[in-house]
Structures are given as structure tokens and as C-alpha cells.
Amino acid sequence: MREQKxxxxxxxxxxCTYTPEEVIHAAGFTPHRLLPGPxxxxxxxxxxxxxxxCPYPRKILxxxxxxxxxxxxxxVVANSCNAMIHLYNVLKEESGPFVYLLDVPRRQDQEAVxxxxxxxxxxxxxxxxxxxxxxxxxxxxSLNIYRRKKLLLDEYSxxxxxxxxxxxxxxxxxxxxxxxxxxxxxxxxxLSGVLEGRQKKRGAPGAVQQGDNPSALLLxxxxxxxxxxxxxxxxxxxxxxxxxxxxxxxxxxxxPPALSGGxxxxxxxxxxxxxxxxxxxxxxxxxxxRAREDYYCRLLDELAVRAxxxxxxxxxxxxxYDYLLLKDLLKKRDIPHLKVKTxxxxxxxxxxxxxxxxxxxxxx
Amino acid sequence: MNPQQLIKEKLNGRLGRxxxxxxxxxxxxxxxxxxxxxxxxxxxxxxxxxxxEQAAEAYHNTKAVAWTSAFFPGELVxxxxxxxxxxxxxxxxxxxxxxxxxxxxxxxxMGLSTDSCSFxxxxxxxxxxxxxxxxxxxxxxxxxxxxxPHLFQYMARQYGRPLYLLDVPARDNEEALDYVTSxxxxxxxxxxxxxxxxxxxxxxxxxxxxxxxxRLDQIEVAKLRQNIPSPLPGQEGLxxxxxxxxxxxxxxxxxxxxxxAGELRDIMEGRRHDAADLKKxxxxxxxxxxxxxxxxxxxxxxxxxxxxxxxxxxxxxxxxPPLDPEKPFRSLARKALSHPGLGPIERRLQIIExxxxxxxAHGVMHFSHWGCRQSVGGTPFLKKKLRxxxxxxxxxxxxxxxxxxxxxGQALTRIEGFCEVLEQLHA
Lengths: 364, 427
Prior knowledge:
The complex is a heterodimer.
Chain A: E1 4-5, E2 8-9, E3 11-14, H1 21-26, E4 30-33, H2 55-65, E5 72-78, H3 82-94, E6 98-102, H4 110-130, H5 136-161, H6 171-181, H7 184-200, E7 216-221, H8 226-235, E8 239-242, H9 248-251, H10 266-278, H11 289-302, E9 305-313, H12 317-333, E10 337-342, H13 349-363
Parallel strand pairs in A: 3-4, 3-5, 5-6, 7-8, 7-9, 9-10
Antiparallel strand pairs in A: 1-2
Helix pairs in contact in A: 4-10, 5-6, 5-7, 5-10, 8-13, 11-12
Chain B: H1 3-12, H2 16-20, H3 23-36, H4 42-60, E1 65-68, H5 75-79, E2 83-85, H6 87-96, H7 100-110, H8 118-128, E3 137-141, H9 147-159, E4 163-166, H10 174-195, H11 201-225, H12 234-237, H13 241-246, H14 253-268, H15 275-279, E5 283-288, H16 298-305, E6 308-313, H17 328-337, H18 346-358, E7 363-369, H19 373-376, H20 379-388, E8 393-398, H21 408-425
Parallel strand pairs in B: 1-2, 1-3, 3-4, 5-6, 5-7, 7-8
């Protein structure tokens, strides 16, 4: 039985996009990505996390202390970086909801898939005790829901790329956030409705037809403050592609295969999930700089990228080094870029606005 | 002008890079500086000579050179008779030679964030400005920091040389052991192909025997330092971290630790004229993380003026079991996974508490190197937990490489305040 409170399934918070939402869902919880949100996370946390580590976990801790995220039954912290391990250390001490550390490999080879499969078994065992058993049947059901979600997200992203949607302010970023925070069946229903509605209006005045390829603005680097995404969407006049884990790297996670009940054992299903997640578009953390370079090249060339905004998230080593790679690729292609630095807060935006506007003016 | 100042000026000038890239510089330094200068400890003299010879060999380019990051299992380098070179350690040398400010500025111009670790910023700039010997291979490990593997990926791109990145999980179980073992076995297989050398059982036994002997002698040194008073000041003790970085599996490492152990026994038994001076101590401290590598009076002030002696360093702690030549890669994997800084912080805390007990320490001092997320990120947790156990803890904010980011006046006030706390506690 899914654990219910009123009409709401209890949520399990997660951070890193290598965290398998399907496994959390199979345990009867709604996976919910914990993000700082505009204007939040400003409470003091220096007693637990020093000021010289990434603002993302610091803001999350502040929000958790202020009980901003309600209905949380637990939190799965992925070992994605030093800062996240420190967040785990702190949450374990002071969190009301349960806290679990998931060890995510940095490699993508078969040994890494095998190791991650075992990690997922441990996660499934743990969550199974907190919610409902994560068995083959529940996993199959969840995988099929997530497969449907993936197909819908792909269709939405395709149409977005054609400029065929009435984009809201947050665009793909907003879609990814909603997808990562919503109950998946309700999200599927909603997105399906949006796409069907668009289908009916096909050919309406102003709609862009297939074959058009509008110029793109790539927002690369670390997790951005929502205000930056909105600023770029509103002011650039270009299609915004957020190349980060709250953007296209979430949306383009490989979809799970179609499964029918009784096909595979729990371990076999977890092995598939493990392989799927490690095969996703490499993030800067992954030990595969060639794949990362190829991925950037593909993005720059296929999306007709006109310019790049690089968000160098404060104290994020992955961002700092990924910039060195991207900068060289942009130079070779003569694509202009602007590097901006934030602490994920609204307070950064005033100064940023001036710089971004000046940059966009030059592009125009 | 004193000779040291003269050398610094020359190195900062136009000839600096050329001088630093010449094997003759290191051999000359070894012959003049090491052989003629007096060292308080013979072991230190041996280690300095070894380091200079390693640098000379790396620049000489007759043997293949492997750039390695801290905590990458160094024995793998010696198994293939490669010359190790540690860009992170070179950052320390740059700081000592006053070259770091220029390199840090250059790393900024390269686009590398000033929030990054200054060891890595210096190493990145050193790579870009071609200060280092040409690498044949690059090897880095994911433990303990996020930055090193990415720095090495940047370096590998610059040189187009094979890169071996070891992913060490946060979990310490059989699956993690299998995962690390298979990676190391894969690296060795590739190194056999690349170097044309076959890894023999005899070679494994030789290198592992050196590593195991060094480990035992290092443990002996640690035990001797547990005596009250301790025979070795931290000013000296901290420098032996070099052997952890570049000496594990090196033929001279066991002899260096053995010599040091002998010297410590001589001090304890009063067989040296400086024994009384070296044994002076009021309070005994455990030192966490590293130290400033630019000229700084901090540690000598702490030890010589305040007589707060560093009796043990976290970085010199022997945390790994002996290596088994019959299971070479599993052994090295076990060593990598045993590091107390990996994963949840309880492991680090347990080792610190054990060190406090073993060394009868009065307090713990943490040099909080700006840019090190792994060590600095844990300081509030350590402070809270150690204080719960009645162990005084002081975190000193600073930077190991960038002297401009170390507020010495503030540190001094805090050190003196800490000293007063110890005096009140032990009055």
C-alpha cells in the first residue's frame, strides 16, 4: 500500500539526477527534488556548514531548518560531491525525516554499473522498510510510469526545440523542475493534456512548423538561480537551453525499457536502472571528459547555439573545471559567452541583470 | 643578500622556468644544498635528497613520468618503474619559492575560479606555463577531493596523454572493494600495453615489500612520538607527508623512516645535544590537514614560543593494512578504501579521537585551507563532536599556498586564545 497522508503520497527528497526516482516511487513515495527556490535558504547555517562550500546544500539545510519542504518522509543524499557528503553528515544529526546516503559512481563502465546495481539494492532494501517493499512488481509498475513520463518529456522537448510551444518564463528549466517535483502519474496526465491541446491547435497562426531551427542561448554551468533563468528567457529573444542537472540533463535521462509483470527479477530490473542512469548525458562530475566534450560539441552544433551564459556556481569545483573545457570549445567556434557567478540567491540578480543585459545587447 | 633570497629572485625572473625545468638544477641543489647544509634530522636530509633526485629524474626524461594526485596508490607507479611527479606537491614548492602569487594570477587569467583550491590553481597554471616535466601518464584518485580528478582531466587534455582516474566509493563494502580492484587491474593491464613491461610477481613482491617495510617503520615513528615528551616537533613531522605523496613503494622510503625512528630514540634517551630542546612541550596537539608552504612563522611560534607541540598529524596517520603481494590489486584497493577521510565523517572523527587518546593530546588544531571542501566542510561537525567529548578544537582559517589569504594577525590571536583555554583546563 502506498503511504498516504490525506490525498498526498509522502515525499522523499533527492538532489542529484543520478538518484533513481523509479526506486523511490516503487517504495510508495513521491520523489521530490529539493531545490532552494527563489528567495529562500537565507537562514544561518555556519554552525553546520562553513561559508566556503557550495551554496546549494547550505540553502537546502537552511530550508529544512525552516521546514520549507513539508510532507517529507525522508531524504536521499547522493554522494555527488564533498559538499553533499557534508550535508549528509549534518542532516543525519538533525533531520526529522530519514536520511540515506546513496553512493553514485563517477565512471560509466560495466564495473560501475555492477557497483551501482548493488547500491540500488541497498537503497531498495532501505526504502522498502520505510514504505512498501521494492519488489519486481512494484518496480515494473513504477518503471512503466516513468517510461511514459520520458516519452512525454521527449515530445515536449522536441516541440520546444522547434519553437512550437507557447513558452512560459521558465521554459525547459520550469518543465524539468515540475517533472522532478510532481507525482509522476499526475504529471503525465497534465503534460499529456498540454500536448494534446497543442495537437488540436496545430497550424494555428504563429505556430512554428517543423524544419525551423531557432537560435539558442545555452545556459551552462552549475545549478542556476531561478531568477537568472527567468531573466534570460524574458530578455534574450532566443530559445533557452539550460545545460545543467535542473534542465536538459534531467529531461534527457534515458527512459526505462517497457516491462511487463514477471519478466525480470528485482535485481535484473535494478541492473537495468543502474545502467540507464550511468548512461545518461555525462555531468561534469563523471570521469569521462571525452564524452563530456563530445556532448558539448553536439549541443553547440546541433542547437545552433548563438551564445552561452556560463553559471560558475560559487565553490563548485565541477563547475570551475568544466568551464575550462567549454571555454576552449566556444573559442574554436567563435561563440560569445558570459561567465557569471552566483550564490544561488536573489541578491545576486541585481548586478547580474546589468551584465546580462549588456551582453545580450551586444548579441542583438 | 642571502643565498636563499638570491635563488628566489632568479627563479622569479625570466630564467625561472628554464631553471626549474632543468634536471641539473635539482642535482646541483642536492649536491650543494643537501650535502653541505646541516639538517637537524638525517632522515630529513635523506628525504630532501630523494625528492630532488626524483625531480631531476622527472625532468631528465629518460624514464616515463607519471603525474599523480594525492592518495592515488603510489605503488602502481613503482610497479612499472615510472617516475612519479606530483603537481599538487609542486604547488607547495612554488609557494616556498615565492612563485605562487604569479601562478595564482595566471590561473585566474586562464578562467579557473579563484574559489578553487590554490594547490590546484598553481598546478593548473604550472601546466599551462609548461613548468612541469612532460607526463607520459596521468593518474588521479577521487579521494579525497572533487577538484583533483578534474584538474587532471584538464591536464590530460593539454598533453593528450593517457589518464587513469580511480573512482573510490564512499561505501566500504565488498562491492566497493571489487569495484576499485577491477579499476586498478584495468590500469595495470593498460600500463603493461603502454609501457611494454610485463608485471611480474617478483616486481610486485619487491615494491610491496618496500611499501610494507616503510609502513612498519612509519608506525614505529608514530609510536615513538606517543612518548611524553614527544621527541619530534610537528614542524619536522609535517614535512614527511612528502613520503605519503611520492614515496610509497620507493626503495629509499623504509630507510628514511627507519633513520627517523633511530633519531627519535636517540632524542628520547638523551644521546643528542639538542634533545632537551626538542623535547620541550607544554601541551600536545593533533594537527589536522596541512600547513602553509610559504614562509610562515605560525608553526614555529606555536611550538617554540608557546610550547604547544604538534605530536601527530592527520596526514601521517597509517590507516591502511599491509599489502598482500598475492592479491596486489585487491590490496591496493583496500588501502585506498581505508582512508578515514572517505565517505561519512564519522570515520575521520573516530581516527581523530583515537589519535587524541594514543598521543595523550590536549587539543586538536585544524588548518582550514581555503578551497578544500573535504576538510573544511567537516570542521563545524568535528568542533561540535570533539567539544562534546571535552576535547578543545581550533579551526584556523588560511591557505596553504596563497599567503595573501592567511590573516596571520587573526590566527595569532586565536592561537593565543586557544593556549589560554588549554591553560585554564589543565591548571
